[in-house]
Amino acid sequence: MPKLLQNMQSQVPSIPYAGCLTQMYFFLFFGDMESFLLVAMAYDRYVAICFPLHYTTIMSPKLCLSMLALAWGVTTFQAMLHTLLMARLCFCADNVIPHFFCDLSALLKLSCSDTQVNDLVIFTIGGPLIVIPFSLIIMSYVLETDMTGRNQTAITEFLLQGLSMESEQKNLFYALFLVINLSFSDLCFSSVTMPKLLQNMQSQVPSIPYAGCLTQMYFFLFFGDLESFLLVAMAYDRYVAICFPLHYTTIMSPKLCFSLVALSWVLTTFHAMLHTLLMARLCFCADNVIPHFFCDLSALLKLSCSDTQVNDLVIFTIGGLVVVIPFLLIITSYVRIVLSILKVPSARGMRKAFSTCGSHLAVVSLFFGSIIALYLCPSADNSTVKEMAMAMMYTVVTPMLNPFIYSLRNRDIKGALGRVFYRKIFSRSL
């Protein structure tokens, strides 16, 4: 405002280069600080309304100081990062900013340098600093609503329509899914939906309780997001192994691996819990038939008789990021891998490097390809059968094939399979 008032009375509304970067830094700093303080105030109101007797204990001076310190640390890092990245750019001819202050996006448009790194940082760091605080505020007010009002839903259970198939085919698919699921008992993702699907295929009334439906939806979102983040970690692992083979053990240290896993668990827990809490506040009046084989988020929203605008907004802002950002990070890692492989002088070395990535690319293509086709690029003529088939691809087929595909990359596994087939052929010939 002071610079704006000065420029309104000046014939030449200019600002020095250093002053422009300084203004941008403090604008980002206090803008982010405002966002985090609004989150802290929302949490303060949540505690005051939902836990009034424990307010002084929960909102202790230590907690308030910790939240303030965290806000200052994150905002300082964010503002300084953008300012340093902006300072490395060149500005050649055009120096007219179409704004009343030195806005980040306006300055990037004036630069004659490559701004890809700046755009990537804005997308990966700047976006979450807006979306996550906003989501936390929404979640706190949803919890307040749940504490102050009663969920008037009239439905106590849902009916899962299941897979559309002939009755004689159900026994065949039942046996197939049962054998595959038992063979890969460590696949938590497929285990969220498969046991209930197997039970309903043999049941006359394929129902699921209301609480069980929300529980299934939570764990489905949790393990689905976890699968997405773990695919990113595996892509980064291959990037380091191919591009920095001599430094692999140093870079991919146990500490970094543990940090990646911990970050994945925290983000997936938050995302799954947020959608579950938002779903729990909705009402379901009459129709309780879910046209799916599990409690899918979008299918449940279509059945609700409440206003689902908040749910749709959260899906669009956070749900998209959970799919888009991991996918873009995987693409980025493989672009760097390909650029590094092309520098390898020998053809044998190139083939070996590409073969290292083949199994992971197969899983990524199946997982993200079916998700993008189903949710991000839906076609108007998609029938329920097609939607369930695509959902089956990433919810059941990909997690079950995942360990099988990677085990084929192991030389010991290949050797064991070869010996088994060789013995069978040799015994038949005798």
Short description:
This protein has 430 residues and is mainly alpha-helical. Helices cover 75% and strands 2% of the residues.
Rg on CA atoms, Å: 27 Å
Report strand order across the widest sheet: 2-1-3
Terminal residue distance: 93 Å
Oligomeric state of the chains in view: single chain
Average pLDDT, rounded to a whole number, is 78
Largest sheet descriptor? 3 strands, mixed
What share of the residues does DSSP label as strand, in percent? under 5%
Structural category is mainly alpha
Considering the chains and any ligands shown, give keywords for the structure.
430 residues; 3-stranded mixed sheet; 3 strands; G protein-coupled receptor activity
Detailed description of the structure:
- This protein is mainly alpha-helical and 430 residues long.
- Helix content is 75%, strand content 2%.
- The chain has a three-stranded mixed beta sheet.
- Helix 7 packs antiparallel against helix 8, helix 8 packs across helix 15 and helix 9 packs antiparallel against helix 14.
- The longest helix has 34 residues.
- It is globular, with a radius of gyration of 27 Å.
- The termini are far apart.
- About 2% of the residues have low confidence.
- Its main location: membrane.
- This is G-protein coupled receptors family 1 profile domain-containing protein.
- Belongs to the G-protein coupled receptor 1 family.
- Keywords: G-protein coupled receptor, Membrane, Olfaction, Receptor, Sensory transduction, Transducer, Transmembrane, Transmembrane helix.
- Pfam families: 7tm_4 (PF13853).
